[in-house]
Amino acid sequence: MAANGASCEQPQKRAGPKDKQNGKSPDSSIRERRQKDKEERLSLVLWRRPVITLHYFLLETLIKLKEWTFKLWQRRVIVFLFLVLCSVFSIAYSTEGAHQQYVQYLEKKFLWCAYWVGLGILSSVGLGTGLHTFLLYLGPHIASVTLAAYECGSTDFPEPPYPDQIVCPQGGVVEGSISLFSIMSKVRLEACMWGAGTAIGELPPYFMARAARQSGADPDDEDYEEFEEMLEQAEGAQDFVTRAKLGVQHMVQKVGFFGILACASIPNPLFDLAGITCGHFLVPFWTFFGATLIGKAIIKMHIQKLFVIITFSKHIVEQMVSLIGSVPKVGPSIQKPFSQYLEAQRNKLHHAGGSAPADENWLSWVFEKVVLVMVCYFVISIVNSMAQSYAKRLQQQRHSEEKTK
């Protein structure tokens, strides 16, 4: 497998005449122009130029819709078969019969899996900034299941209402009946689906770099341009970040499948570079995606899941609350809301459908507002990113017209 990446030739440096023109080489002028264009695009954000940003966002949205419609029309046979399949499922869904119990079961599992896969894609795909849905959704979900398992003495939560609301099963708490592996098994499906979503979200950089390398055209992506510049200046790299990026690139290129697997199996903010590297060096799709899927959905996901479960196990949580109370002066005042929150969660586990107290704990209120702010920021970043993409289209069009003159 390693030969897939290593056998590809190193990229050639962009050739160009070195004759001096007005005291500057053509390569230097191009770099300055690109830097100027980039700064101009980055200034196009909602809080600086709201009207133009929204206008460009709408125009870019229309262009994307047109492109997607054209691509769907090119694959109209597949689209037609998909619509026929959806029609068959729709008929089976609306027709009464003994098969309804299986249809409802499949519907519930499909929606549950699609929900976590979608959150995984949002966490990984970027669109200007990542919405880290592990910290916002999956981590709290695993933590709530862990706390409920220790409180209930069982993971046999009745369905419904779980997973919408966790309620302890009837029969009382059985001390010592909960193990680490039983909690891991309870949340394995959603954790693996979220990990699979993050693996799918890594595909755009791979396909972009692969298409740019095969076509020989300049890529419409700044990350790829930075990647090529990094390769050209590899020998003189001194700073830690550049050396770390080069380390990821060399590992993926030389080791192949197992290098990708190693990068995907640990929390790695530079993994986007691995996707670009694999696409640039024409690593086969299944080598890249297979290693990424195994690393993110199985190895990395179990590490993260194990960490959350251990952190929120009963005795560690109690020790953390006690430790907060031991802080001089401010400890007791901070400890009180944490204790109230944990007590409220325990009460909810034993009373299905109970009304929330009037004096809602401020911790839950703060968490809800943090989630809302992060989601709003994510949406704003998408608007900014699409507006900047349209601005780049205009810049490329302007440069093309200048060349033809």
Automatic annotation (TrEMBL):
Region (Disordered): 1-36
GO BP, sorted A to Z: autophagy; lipoprotein transport
Keywords, sorted A to Z: Membrane, Transmembrane, Transmembrane helix
Protein name: Vacuole membrane protein 1
Superkingdom to which the source organism belongs: Eukaryota
Membrane-spanning ranges: 77-95, 115-138, 251-267, 273-294, 306-327, 370-391
Membrane recorded as keyword: yes
